[in-house]
Write a structure and sequence with these properties.
Elements: H1 2-15, E1 33-40, E2 43-44, E3 47-51, E4 56-66, E5 71-82, E6 85-100, E7 103-108, E8 115-121, E9 124-130, E10 135-141
Antiparallel strand pairs: 1-2, 1-4, 1-10, 3-4, 4-5, 5-6, 6-7, 7-8, 8-9, 9-10
Amino acid sequence: MLAIGFGLTLAIAACGSDSSPPVDPTSPDTPVGNYSITTVNAKALPAAVIDTTNYKFEILSGALNLTADGKYTEVTRFRETIPDNTSTFVDSTFGTWTRSGTQISLKNGEDPNAMSTGTWAGMQMTFVMVDSAFTTTFVYKK
């Protein structure tokens, strides 16, 4: 009888607890966590993505945060230089993210048609952005 009572107590306790461990955002086993841009087009930051005689556009820093509930935020600092004037500004976006294998998809919360897709590899994510003028590769690391 004691063995049955002990077994029943264990069964009740097991039903009342969450068996999944908490998500460790520093773990390479999950994309959840905080990432910083480390390179743009294989250049360390600050990195110029456009650099002509009269115009320079640089990425100074960037952060991407993926949460366990499927949301993301991204904040990027830029510097734009033209003759006799330099401006620094910040751009941010938010939305939802999904994972399929090593593919990470970011769906913009303000424009549901805007989607970015990258590759996740442990402590690193890589996004390649292609527009009509050029291709830009961003590498983020935890």
